[in-house]
Structures are given as structure tokens and as C-alpha cells.
Amino acid sequence: MRFNDKKLIMFDLDGTLIDSAPDLALAINHMLVALKRDIFSQDIIRSWVGNGAQILVKRALLGKMDHSEDLDSALLEEAVSIFLDFYKNNLCVETVTYPHVRATLKILKAQGYRLAIVTNKPFAFIEPILKGLQLEGIFELCVGGDTLSVRKPDPQHLLYVCEKLGVSYQQCVMVGDSRNDILAANAANMQSIGLTYGYNYGEDISLHKPDAVCSDFADMIAMLAEKNEYELID
Description:
Layout: E1 8-11, E2 18-19, H1 21-34, H2 42-46, H3 53-62, H4 73-87, E3 96-97, H5 101-110, E4 114-118, H6 123-132, E5 141-143, H7 156-165, E6 172-176, H8 179-187, E7 191-195, E8 212-214, H9 219-224
Parallel strand pairs: 1-4, 1-6, 4-5, 6-7, 7-8
Antiparallel strand pairs: 2-3
Helix pairs in contact: 1-4, 3-4
């Protein structure tokens, strides 16, 4: 499928542009050790990523994906604080960009697209990660999970970006790896591209009906451009 007359591309961060699971797992296990609790493998923690820091911490404390069970509020607050304090100092230890991300973003920007990030990750972490991974200066606007009072799959963050940058939802595409990204785009009546890698709780991203699906980040170049005269070098 091709996307016509688009001006702005919104990207999720974790699981879409970057694989941050190793550093998130490191911070989660640091928090669990500090609270004298059992730690978990990186693969298990990876399966919990995608709904923001507080829910990730809650899943770790409960030891399961289902976070509906109530926890002592003081314990949760302490755990989140330990996690965030450690993570902010270890943002790019093992975190990396996915294949072709850096080169593809530069190509899209050179072709005239405006680029933005819409993530459930706390806002304060976005810029240091972009700088650490040499992605600074690419995005016109970054929106974090705490920028508004809601998080994806609520569509308000996507609509907020439209308002801030003066574009209509018809002129935008949301790109993400999880159902939260696609459901948010669907709720905003915005076209979307789903990625088959990343953090989607073991589900096939196509189940949530994105307008297109990519297994390689670079595939978007052909989808979003009538002509591609750029060589992909990453």
C-alpha cells in the first residue's frame, strides 16, 4: 500500500526505533534486588514492555503480565522511584537502534517529511536516548507518556501532535510495533504502519488492522515515497 499526501510521520520509540529491553531489564532487576525480590530474565521483562514505566514496574512486582491486581501504593511508588533513578543513569548501556532506522529516518527527513516521536516512555528520557544513539536533530516534536494525562492507546497524544504542528490527521501516519500504536491511530482516524518486530506481547501486529505491515524499517521508504534516489547506508 502507498500513502499519498502525507506530511508528518509519527514514530513510537521503544520497540520501533530502539531496542531498549536490555537496559529496561537491567533497571527492573536492580529495583527488584533493592526490594529483596526475585529477578527475571530479560526475555520475560521484554514481554512486559510497552505501557509505560509504572505498569512495567507493577508487572515486575506482581511477576506477571496482568497488572490489574492492586498493590500497596507506597510500595509501588518506592519501586517506580528506584527503577527510574537507576534507569536515567543507564539509558544507553545496551540499547541500540533497530536495523536501518538511522539511515531511513534521515532519508525520510531529506525527502521533506516532518518527523515526531509519540511514546509511552517518560518524556525526560527521550532526548538523552536520542543523543546517545545519534538520533538528535531528526524529530520536530517528541511527546512522552507523561506529556498528557493519558497514554496510548488513547489517541490524544497523536491529536496533540497534529495540533502542535498544524497538520490534519489525514496528513499523518503513525508507525509502531505494538497494538497500542495501531489502536491509537485507529481511534484518531489516522493511517498506520505496523512493524512485525518489537514489543507486542506475542501478538501478530496485523490483528489490529494497520494500513500496512513492515518487517524491515527501511520498507517504509518505498511506501512513503513515489521515487527513492537515496542509497540506504546505516
